[in-house]
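Field guide to reading this record: the first block holds the primary sequence, the second block holds the structure written as discrete tokens, and the final block holds curator observations. Each block starts with its own label. This record concerns MADS-box domain-containing protein, catalogued under organism Immersiella caudata.

BLOCK 1 — SEQUENCE
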Amino acid sequence: MSAKRARRLREQSRNRRKTIFRKADELRKCNARVYLLVEMGKRCYIYNSERQSRWPPPHESILEERYPLPIEYGPGSSVGDDS
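BLOCK 2 — STRUCTURE
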């Protein structure tokens, strides 16, 4: 990979990471509790709207204790306007 392409990829990744964290913060302002983990290479970046030891809950407890059931998104799934 050329140095120019590598620099462009780093800049693009940084900008996208900043955008997703800004969007997470906008959700927080709408009274949503948000926890976002981004792993890129050997680094992890975390956004947490709460500073409580119980937030975020473990993934298993989210699936067991919530009704209606949580909507999970992943690669290839459509992130629509599910309220």
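BLOCK 3 — OBSERVATIONS
The chain is about 40% helix and 15% strand.
The chain has a mean pLDDT of 85.
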